[in-house]
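One record is given unchanged without comment:
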Amino acid sequence: MNLHLKDQNVTNDNELARAAQRGDQNAFRELVTRYENRIYRLGLKIVHDQQDAEDVLQETFISAYRHLDSFRGDAQFSTWLYRIATNAALMKLRARKPVVSLDEPSPDGSEADMAPNLVDWSATPEEMLLNGEIRTQMDAALASLPEILQVVFVLRDVEGLSVEETARVLDISVPNVKTRLHRARLALRECLSLYFAEREAKAGKEVTR
């Protein structure tokens, strides 16, 4: 007997996944509906190509459907699905370019080797970050990061997963997530500092005219 799906706020993801495991195709379709936009966005932020992101989307749900029995329900369905999607996206990324390996810094998050004198853009208003030009700069800076930093940043700061969820998706420790996230944020700030400095200089010239 199929699960009624009229109110998605009542039926949570894990319940839908359990119904899908019992053969309820409507339940699985509902999960696809709930997550297809987020999985596409995640893929696009990692592979930076629309066609590859479409492939990641398709491969994610095909793999999820084929391996539904492996979902035990001891974690959120979203975490399980993000792990499948992240792996699919990384496979696409690695097929196009060599993997960059970085030595892990100590888990205390010390980053003495990072450039200290950077323009502080952390307080940039949200509406400014949504500006098309700045978003393009942000995407380019994100694409320039090594994948081990890029993926952590996308999962934590773009998709909004918790540190613990990010650790489970990537199968790494929480201290490693925190360290990689710290490095990613500093690297992005360094990439974007020149851009914001130029904006400030230009704005200053316009004011003095």
User: Anything to note?
Assistant: The two ends are 73 Å apart (CA to CA).
